[in-house]
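Sample pair:
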Amino acid sequence: MSIKRTDIPAEEIEKQLAICTEVRQRYEGKKPLALVDTFGCQQNEEDSEKIRGYLAEMGFEMTEDEFKADIIVLNTCAVREHAEMRVFGNLGALTHPKKENPNQIIAVCGCMVQQEHVVDKIKKSFRHVDLVFGPDELWRFPELIYTVMTKRKRVFAPGSGDGCVAEGVPHLRADKVKAWLSIMNGCNNFCTYCIVPYTRFRERSRQPEEIVKEARELVAQGYKEITLLGQNVNSYGRDLDCGITFAQLIRMINSIEGDFVIRFMTSHPKDANSELFTAMRDCEKCEKHLHLPLQSGSDRILKAMNRHYDTEKYLALVDKVRETVPDIVLTTDIIVGFPNETDEDFEGTMSVIEKVRFDAMFTFIYSKRLGTPAAEMSDPFTREEKQVHFDRLLEAQNRISEEKHREYIGKIVRALIDGKDREEGVLSARTSGGRLVRVISDESLIGTFANVKITDCNTWALRGEIV
């Protein structure tokens, strides 16, 4: 695999913006509509904001109706099989709006299209798809769309794998309170179950001054929460000669004037360290939440996963961060049913869960990904056997989460009121540790910080009143 880094010159982005003007002129006298549907992680969400930004420059307004859309973009995820099948199901359904509007342009992008078998399937089985492009080709999305429009031919640009870094691509953010801010892309870790290094390629960091500039702009625009994104934020800057670590980057953003908070994801345990924990403690704007994926509590499985740490090191990290940041909220990821995971291996995971007592977990049954080493491993255990383990894990974590939440009752916490809850007349808020709080209050408070007294809870959320 190529490890080349390609920094896109500013003049190339200017050319793309000029093409946006040409596209806008083609729709003169009409208000064109676009639909961008996103699957997968926060990095994909941030990529979709760039796609919407370009579309807005082209004169498009956004819609959720595929029958009204002149352009439809599906931004895909390859991490789990379920997301991949949903994409193919949605693609099949798009034959109907395309039939009603033959001039409609349908594009597929994201991690899925970095896999050769997916591109082949789209070429052969989804002939109504006009454009396919990979994450590294996003910076020239206007050029690709314009080619489809003017040449009326299918365009396939999955990408070379050079690892592009492009500054100056416009964003259109749907959320007015919380913003994603990508600080790096790609991954060097090659966990045996993960497709990301093959779809997002090797790590490449943005220059710190560009990140701080964007953060400053977000604060000026009124954003109250900025989440720094990277497949492994702890390795930020290692591919640059700037000498800035991730912990130092947090301190730089923390020094920006304004009333806002900083979050980040995701931290790989092999790279988490005291420098990071100390920065979290010292920086008043850095929220006290650490997402630290464990994946398994079995050293044998962790080695098979190529995770580069064992349970002893992981538990030592937990002790260190709790010593440094006593009010830290810890969350994690767990994979159940990795190839050849035995009952004994699973009991190791259960043991770590009980020792650490995570505030919340994101749990998954192992999903085989074609092209990863784990996909070639023998696996004698059935889905039903894995489901038994999964249900036990979920039951234990639900109990721990509710116990943790009950400790909040009667306390007053500072929370960001970030939007409307699904429950009528209720707003959603987040504590410093990222815990969801439901409060009854006026919508005018959305986008502000408030002191909330916690009055009740369940497994998944807290309930409170503003004081």
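The two ends are 56 Å apart (CA to CA).
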